[in-house]
Write a structure and sequence with these properties.
The chain has about 240 residues and is an alpha/beta fold. The protein contains nine helices and seven strands; from the N terminus they run H-E-E-H-H-E-E-H-H-H-E-E-H-E-H-H.
């Protein structure tokens, strides 16, 4: 096992232990806390919002704690930073140009965007210039795309070498995409994949209350009050 993979494994193990402790604490507060490590299979088209939690983590210690946690219940101003997924996604556009139309990386809309970013930033994706970026995409992301074309997006639960894709769940149960794993998500869209496995980084406090209500009210009463939520992936790990 490489040193990098060992570090990643230790980080994931630490996160899982913290998740177990958080779950034990939540069981004293909520009737239906989410189970740590519970993977959801969600439809890509259902991801309609996004939050740059990585950027937020650099702004305050409170947001940094949220970013480093998993399976947490979140209230407060954090949710004010959630935005709708816009129609123009330069990464998705660049991937379609490269993988479907055969456009060289350096001629894609994505790399034109990166060229502008490099005028204002010392590095992009850890690269100091466009040539380094081209080598990165040709060496890493071309092979990743081919792998996803054959295997799809695989579960990270039992493989420390696979970085999980995380989502948040908003007050109404809608899925909020985070700042990690966006290369794989956009490749999945290009490939036409419909479902992906994800882990929950955090739930809105109001959504947690709906989970509790689902547990307490019974299926018929819940279905009558929330008919659109009965088949929600995040409710499938609990029995009303």
């Amino acid at each position: 096992m490489s040193l990098g993979l060992l570090r990643k494994y230790k980080t994931q193990l630490k996160a899982r232990l913290q998740g177990e402790l958080r779950y034990c604490y939540y069981k004293m507060i909520y009737r239906n806390p989410g189970r740590p490590g519970k993977e959801l299979l969600i439809n890509i088209s259902d991801i309609r919002m996004v939050i740059n939690d990585r950027w937020l983590s650099r702004q305050s210690s409170e947001y940094r704690r949220i970013y480093k946690a998993t399976n947490s219940v979140i209230g407060g101003e954090f949710w004010e930073h959630v935005k709708p997924v816009t129609g123009r996604n330069v990464k998705l556009l660049g991937f379609r140009e490269h993988f479907l139309m055969g456009v060289a990386w350096q001629d894609t809309s994505l790399f034109k965007h990166y060229a502008q970013e490099l005028l204002d930033k010392p590095s992009v994706q850890g690269c100091n210039d466009l040539n380094a970026l081209i080598r990165l995409y040709e060496g890493k992301y071309d092979s990743l795309y081919q792998k996803l074309a054959v295997e799809g997006i695989k579960s990270a639960r039992h493989d420390a070498g696979i970085e999980p894709i995380y989502i948040y769940i908003h007050a109404d149960g809608s899925f909020v995409y985070t700042s990690g794993g966006n290369h794989r998500l956009n490749m999945a869209k290009v490939l036409g994949l419909k479902n992906i496995p994800v882990l929950v980084r955090g739930r809105h406090l109001q959504w947690q209350r709906i989970r509790d209500e689902y547990k307490l009210s019974g299926h018929s009463a819940f279905q009558q009050k929330y008919p659109s939520l009965v088949g929600h992936p995040d409710l499938q790990d609990s029995t009303p």
